[in-house]
Amino acid sequence: MNSFNTYTLKTPEFINTRLDKSLPLIFQGHSRSFYEALFEKDQIKVNQKKVKKSYKLLENDVVSVEIPEAPPLNLTKKQMPLDIIFEDEHLVVINKQSGLVVHPACGHQDDTLVNGLLYYCDLEKDTDDLRPGIVHRLDKDTSGLLITCKTKKAHEAMSALFMNKEIKKSYLAICLGKVKDETIEASIARHKHFRQKMSVSTHENAKHAVTIAQNLFFDHEISLAKLDIITGRTHQIRVHMQYKKTPVLGDSVYGYTQANSSFKVTRQYLHAFSLEFIHPFTEVLMHLKAPLPDDMKSFLQAKKVDEALYS
Question: Which are the catalytic amino acids?
């Protein structure tokens, strides 16, 4: 059975905008082309009536979308380039490229990091596990270091390190405006209206979130910031930077569309560049780094930022 999503416009964010352009932001998780196909099948309506793709949304419009049922997900092996930073019999630490989804989900069944890992090495997994080896995640468009586990025993050990906050995770981000040197302590919960977005919240169900921000460079337009996350909430850095009015440059969800377009940046400039932890089996202190991807490096070089700040 197909699922139905509905949304009533009560904020000015989408009022007087084209329906086809707004749908990927209102109901996130699918592309604009995905929704264009639903228009042809009359599976998108406004106020229970069929409308054109160019329809301009009005206040209190009720937008309803009928989402086709997704086929069951199956794990398949797929050869793909993997930038491996460290590997032993227990762990594989990968420098994930931007645009790569971590594990299979709707719309990404056989082109994820998990599919590549299964081709590269043996991963011990349960029969119903669609995330073998994955102990933490990075957003699709965030690049950088990701720890994966070859065995269940390694997965349990690394999960305990994450739970006990015994892994130091540092990110580099290019942000709009001047990032302050401060500890950001602001709880995060799912957005009240956009269920696939997160936001700073005082709701009782909000989860405690702490980010330590350090400004490495500022030129009156953008900052290069080092961000250490003490907690690991969904979209934590992106939400905290938006909350401080210094959003990650290129962030299409939490950032400023006009600024992203002005700087010609098409993905969020956020990179998980450093991990530090004690290996649970060898007891060796691991300090791993992943170099900035070419797009972020080129942007900073154009700004004449000292490479020593991000290497």
Answer: 139
